[in-house]
Design a protein that fits this description.
The chain contains 2 helices and 3 strands; from the N terminus they run βααββ. By secondary structure, the protein is of the alpha+beta class. Strand 2 and strand 3 form a beta hairpin. The longest helix is centred in the middle third of the chain and has 8 residues, at 35-42.
């Protein structure tokens, strides 16, 4: 199992569930908002925890095939 964990100390995400929806953005009409939706398709697990004003942590997990071990 491959696990990647990324943490920032930014402004946080107010509504994590909504941020996982395709085309959701807070950046105006010029942004696509596909990042989390695409990650959900590519990874076995995407876990996002966030606190407004306290940053965000994203954990991605993917099973490795026998060929990649």
């Amino acid at each position: 199992m491959l696990t990647v964990k990324v943490r920032d100390r930014g402004c946080g995400i107010a509504d994590v569930q909504k941020a996982m929806e395709p085309l959701f953005t807070t950046g105006g009409s010029e942004r696509a908002g596909l990042g989390f939706a695409v990650m959900q398709e590519l990874m076995d697990e995407v876990r996002v925890t966030s606190r407004v004003g306290g940053g965000t942590t994203v954990r991605l997990r993917r099973r490795l095939s026998q060929k990649t071990r």
